[in-house]
Amino acid sequence: MRIISGLYKSRKIVAPKNLPVRPTTDMAKESLFNIINNLYYFDDISILDLFSGTGNISYEFASRGTEQITCVDQDFGCIKFINQTAEAFKMPIQTIKSDVFKFLEKSNLQSNIIFADPPYSFTDEQFYKIPELVFQNNLLLEEGLLIVEHSKHTDLSKLENFSYSKSYGGNMFSFFEIL
């Protein structure tokens, strides 16, 4: 994986092969950040990266100037890798090792953008629970976005607070906002 833009543009990051991850493709990530770039100033926002895996999305935000980034993942190897990479690049990324659903149930951390990239193998009910918990616990700041990455076989369009979705190859991003 590589960082698309910003301070660390073109830097390659090689994750250990034993991590249970499926990083967002560069093409999908570049398209996603083109959307976000038109909505926010990166240095003015806070990010919550759920199911953060390798930290791919968080590195992109940090490279573009975001100072408040929190990654949540339940895998110790993923958290360790994110911490090592953030330290090597001097990125302002904090990590929390936790089951994402338990974190969402207890957290009061509000963010401008909440990005969730759960396993594509999740059931529909597991996918539905993410926006439900985010909005139920008021974790999204006003004019914020919840972005859920999923396969084209998952449909989140009927959920409350759904705004729109974008498809990039086999990847889809569903966008939710306070309505």
Number of domains: 1
Q: What is the CATH topology assignment?
A: Rossmann fold
Rg, rounded, reads 15 Å
CATH class type: Alpha Beta
- What spatial form do the alpha-carbon principal axes imply? globular
Termini separation (Å)? 35 Å
Please estimate the helix content.
25-40%
Average pLDDT confidence is 95
The CATH architecture assignment turns out to be 3-Layer(aba) Sandwich
Characterization of this structure:
The chain has 179 residues and is an alpha/beta fold. The protein has one domain (41-176): Vaccinia Virus protein VP39 (Rossmann fold, 3-Layer(aba) Sandwich). 30% of the residues lie in helices and 26% in strands. The chain is built from five helices and seven strands, in the order αβαβαβαβαβββ. The chain has helices at residues 26-37, 56-63, 76-89, 100-106, 124-136, and strands at 46-50, 68-73, 93-97, 111-116, 140-151, 162-168, 171-176. A seven-stranded mixed sheet has the order 3-2-1-4-5-7-6, with helices on both faces. The termini are far apart.
